[in-house]
Amino acid sequence: MNYRREIDGLRSVAVIPVVLFHAGFQLFSGGFIGVDIFFVISGYLITSIIIAERDRGVFSLLKFYERRARRILPVLFFVLLCCLPFAWVWMLPAQMASFARSIIAVCLFGSNFLFWHESGGYFAAASEEQPLLHTWSLAVEEQYYMLFPLFVMLMWRFGRHALIGAIAAVALASLLLAQYGSVNFTTANFYLPNTRAWELLAGSLCAFLLAGGRQYSSNILSLTGLAIIVFSIFAYDEATPFPSLYALVPVLGAVLVILFASAGTLTAQLLSTRPMVGVGLISYSLYLWHQPVFALARIRGLTEPSMALMSLLALACVGLAYLSWRFIETPFRKGSGVQLLPTPARMLGGGAITAALFIGIGLYGVSDNGLQFRLPPDALTALAEQEHHDPVMDTCLFDKGEASLPHPVRDCLTQHSTASRTILIGDSHAAALAGEALRSFDSNNVDLYVMTHSACVGFSGFYVSNPKYKLRCDPFFRGIEDYIQKSGMATVIMASRWSLYVDGAPFDNGEGGIESLKPTYVDLLDRLDEHATQGDPARKARVLKQYVADIQKYLDAGRNVVLVYPIPEAGWNVPERVAKSAMYGVKNLEFSTSYDRYRQRNGAVIAAFDAISHPNLFRVRPADFFCDSFLKDRCINSLSAERVFYFDDDHLSDSGADLVVPAILAAVEVINGRTAGPALVTR
């Protein structure tokens, strides 16, 4: 087939948005669609080669696989090799184990399956620290390379038209499955080859239309194709269901460019400029380098890297890409590498041996739970808070909207009790207090029962924006409220991440610590059809108003309420920050965040709570223990490796809960008439 400069230019249109998207440039919110353009290009080029060689009667499956191996493996293995020393020095054990598993998966052409099972999704914040996350698309292409030639050889015997019809039918079925999967199994839908096949097959159909050197020409259609690609780069974002019918836009754009951007068109002239072709030529190497460089930078830093640093790293990736293209890609495809491994058997055998060596390295990296022996004792001590959060959270933190439970659940009740007239309700912030609370109450012979649910403010009548929990909160807390009423509970302890559900935004501590959470907010269930947004001030006002009304409802019913005010959030993963600091030789492992930032985040909720007046209301203010206490104008996160107050970026560890629970216990004992209570427990 004839070389088309504009196809290399189209590669640059694909790779640049991907790099800038992963660097964190919000303007390129749909940059991930570059991968879809690559799929179309790959389908077109591979099928064109197969058709041309098949028509000349020289197609060889072994030679086909050799060419793919020469194209893909040498620079891929080099990038893996370069990652290893940085992983050894910088990665925490869990990161190392995950990285090691991804090395194995890459070498087995199955990293898309690994990331489907392991990750919280391609757009999850944790994915930004996966150096090999981007190899999921290589795995999809490799699976296509393995199967598609066999499919062509099988179907060609029925004639070219039958083959084209079969490809079109499979592509249509794959697209429909992708649309269905975008609603019903979103993570699998993103990674699996059966929902991506239609994009590659769209390129294959282009190859059949252009077979024999045919080329269509249209300024309007080719410019339209380029325009809709650019549109999707800037208009789409992580909330766009993908792949789905939305993916038709960039895929159709790539198809139109391939079909109609002949040499004389304006689109071809734009894409054939020297800079565009140059970036296109190094696009594979650039794609391979960018994610490891960005991920390792994020792993190394104690805070999120600045956009200035990420910009410099993006430029560095271009330099690395040129060098690997010049000295690894090109020689192995056309020069000395061909002489080094001159036959298909030697090339494929060399690739297999190298892959086996990397698999061995991966197996070693998984051992000892991620090679823990690399870390100093202080780092391991700090990480213990992260790895061993209180088991009560696994038992008494529900997440499926369980509306009917066999109350009381034995493991969520103080050990000495058979029943309790005091209950702790709320979300995971309440659950983080629960283990220490049950132990402390039990040791003081005070009854306590715990019932909490993930991502739910502790009242019925709300829905949450998180799709997983959207309609689970209401039935669960209706069941709890029914139990409170029927059992005659005298005291209700309320703890939730109140301000998150009002504001909706992940916590940003203003010092580089930005919580790894998607926007999560609540609204009243009877407003479900109104689709209120995160920033809607009317939504925020009515949520706050309903908080007060629900608290007042308990008080008016004659119950005592112990209201736990907002718990300070950290913004950064505290055990990891302490552990990394210890790894880098930092001696002072005391970390904190701004008290002013706490006030800004929680001011509206605190004001609403302060306005409630009732003799049966007892207030516990965690900020009194964390903020302006250990350090002036600061909220403490940790004092040392042994005293880490959070097990992630916002949930209290047992050490943190130990600062708050005594005040909760004191309030309950005041209610029970046992003591006068400390000054910090206020009405």
From TrEMBL:
- Indicate whether ATP-binding appears among the record's keywords: no
Signal peptide location: none
Keyword Cell membrane set for record: no
Give the record's keywords alphabetically. Membrane, Transmembrane, Transmembrane helix
Source organism superkingdom: Bacteria
Report the residue ranges that make up the Acyltransferase domain in this protein.
6-323
- The record places domain SGNH at 407-665
Instruction: Provide the protein name.
Output: Peptidoglycan/LPS O-acetylase OafA/YrhL
Against InterPro entries, the record matches this protein to: Acyl_transf_3_dom, Acyltransferase_3, SGNH
Which positions, given as ranges, span the membrane?
7-25, 31-52, 72-92, 98-116, 162-183, 195-213, 220-236, 242-266, 308-328, 348-366
> Upper taxonomic classification of the species?
Bacteria, Pseudomonadati, Pseudomonadota, Alphaproteobacteria, Hyphomicrobiales
